[in-house]
Fold each of these.
Amino acid sequence: RKEVEQDPGPFNVPEGATVAFNCTYSNSASQSFFWYRQDCRKEPKLLMSVYSSGNEDGRFTAQLNRASQYISLLIRDSKLSDSATYLCVVNRVTGGGNKLTFGTGTQLKVEL
Amino acid sequence: NAGVTQTPKFRILKIGQSMTLQCTQDMNHNYMYWYRQDPGMGLKLIYYSVGAGITDKGEVPNGYNVSRSTTEDFPLRLELAAPSQTSVYFCASSYSQETYGYTFGSGTRLTVV
């Protein structure tokens, strides 16, 4: 089983739609969680950290369920500019220090 | 404020050649990383550094070497390039390993033929 799993998509949604991405992680010792955005042929960029209480940044809401080892990202009122690949990232402490594991990403295409 | 700068952006190597991918950051971050990203795969950690003079292997270090003589620079060396090293390489840096996100460079697209 992969340490971080995401549905690769693509998710094709109309502009203005609400879309949700899910991510599961296998190691219960994971401590911190992030969503990154990666545009085609570009570098990943931090979108938001994910906190246990859930957190919101404008149209984006991230949720964490430690019991189910599940992370989600909700995008409301989708814009064309939201089209990108969204990477789920999980961090855990190991004997060798922190280990950041990236999911393979979920592709979002927002259409007119 | 440049962030993380990688050079070159593109490179084609012949099998057996060697090259150095350059990475420099101006944010005074202690932590620096090299990742490779293959199509349909997540980013894989090659090497990382927790400070000047300290480097360590990641998941996929074979065929690569690094050095960290200064806080700013973290070059990645490929010796005897192989087709399996065709990939996109990203350098990243961070203030803290735990709670802060990483800042990535714009990447180097390497093809080995």
Amino acid sequence: DAGVIQSPRHEVTEMGQEVTLRCKPISGHDYLFWYRQTMMRGLELLIYFNNNVPIDDSGMPEDRFSAKMPNASFSTLKIQPSEPRDSAVYFCASSVRLLRGLETQYFGPGTRLLVL
Amino acid sequence: AQSVTQPDIHITVSEGASLELRCNYSYGATPYLFWYVQSPGQGLQLLLKYFSGDTLVQGIKGFEAEFKRSQSSFNLRKPSVHWSDAAEYFCAVGTRANNLFFGTGTRLTVIP
């Protein structure tokens, strides 16, 4: 199993530009999560999907952020327009729900975003 | 509301010494508890998890953790630390909604 795949691994862009982060979850996993990690705020859940449907987007910081999951094997997190304070590491994770209600989340390697 | 507290921001131990990383949680129901490790520039890797049953949980790389309901704690331990254990460690509590809430992390430095 290839694990959760994220691209790009690093992204440097200028303020005002659109940024698109991509994630391929582990095959067969029906939950997908987007997290942001910063020194100041630690790991924050931004949004998560179940069966391609957004379930909770309360962590999305503002309207500049949007996420989609058009199919079970692909998700995007888009920032438009980007700002320097969006600089962070963005992680994607996936999991599968078992009868007992919760299963381990497996994390991708992250995308390190720097907005100048 | 659920929350996780890792009181130690940074811990330094000598190689071969024992290790204990503290984690306290707040959650109204039976918690699902996790420890993840993050090496520099890497993603998070699961060390171990507790869902139910035996309160002493064994994980990978020689780590273990003990769930103590009376203390709302889930401390991570290792009897003998290796230089490769230097990393950041995150405790997390999971809810029935499949959310994970992470602590702020403890950075471990290992001295040769």
Amino acid sequence: GDSVTQMEGPVTLSEEAFLTINCTYTATGYPSLFWYVQYPGEGLQLLLKATKADDKGSNKGFEATYRKETTSFHLEKGSVQVSDSAVYFCALKSGAGGFKTIFGAGTRLFVKA
Amino acid sequence: EAGVVQSPRYKIIEKKQPVAFWCNPISGHNTLYWYRQNLGQGPELLIRYENEEAVDDSQLPKDRFSAERLKGVDSTLKIQPAELGDSAVYLCASSLVPSAPYEQYFGPGTRLTVT
């Protein structure tokens, strides 16, 4: 079945450092890919998405490119801020999967001032 | 626009007791989801509704869990009786339609602790 694997956390960075959180997926068909963010005490919020190969999703300085050849959707940000501290979830959804969203286990990011 | 509303935010019960969670989706959203999120894990789908119909409840433990979405708006998820392993955050989400790329909007969740 469909699955998402993302790098284990926690990831600890200093402010203004470069961020990469790796995400790879296994899916039948052509899924849409998502990154969600969960701030402490809040629900998940969609951060960005990409619906087809080579699409780049971007939002709030974060970006991720849908790489079909490597089945990856890595999250990057050039300069993180303390306010980016949260848990980040990679996810996929495909029609072949019955429109079920499959989430990775999440990666916790701590950014130090 | 109001987001997805869930109540209560926190619930502590003893094992074998019943518990219920309530969700009000974003107005106009036909699709409603209930997820369970265990500590340190991503959300896992329990049930998906399209309007009043439960179209995917394959992951719902039907011996103790039940859900309803009367009139295709609000929804209630119930556990009876609760077990220690049910301790988790229960998330409700809604979307216009289920198909990608339409995103899901999540509520803040109900954190359940079973003692």
Amino acid sequence: EDQVTQSPEALRLQEGESSSLNCSYTVSGLRGLFWYRQDPGKGPEFLFTLYSAGEEKEKERLKATLTKKESFLHITAPKPEDSATYLCAVRGPVSIKAAGNKLTFGGGTRVLVKP
Amino acid sequence: GAVVSQHPSWVICKSGTSVKIECRSLDFQATTMFWYRQFPKQSLMLMATSNEGSKATYEQGVEKDKFLINHASLTLSTLTVTSAHPEDSSFYICSASRDRAYNSPLHFGNGTRLTVT
């Protein structure tokens, strides 16, 4: 069974204080690791897809990296508008039981950036 | 980007009644849609996979007679919570992929907040 663990659960940052979020995963045959941002009362918003160890993706102040066991989401010089819950999810191998392209999510990291 | 629309955004109902939630893919066709449930300060838990033209696939522990799913067209899936009880109060979110590629992300609707009184 696919497992995803995110840490820390919550992170309080001062504006401009860079930090990293961790996503550890266990899956046999990774078909993709996904990062999402979720604002309160909203559905998750897609940020990145990573597939291969060593792969990196960037978008504004966010950078995602991937190893064989974990992924990091680096937030560089965050601003208050970066405050949100960041979710990591994995897509495992296709199997008879697996439901197509479903994603298994971690518990998320709630990020609060104070001005 | 792909757009998934959910309706209603919130609903309050009395215990014992049924509630229908709609999920539409606005700019693409989706043969498969996924229904997730999220409790406060918790992550998303997959409830079921909605398959166009065939029966839904439910995750272990999810009552299929309580959470009825219908995927009647390539752009519409509905989730009906039957005989709702207060413990069914939650945030329900649907999602779909634009295509079947292994690295194709799921795009999510904005969720439906269900409160059962």
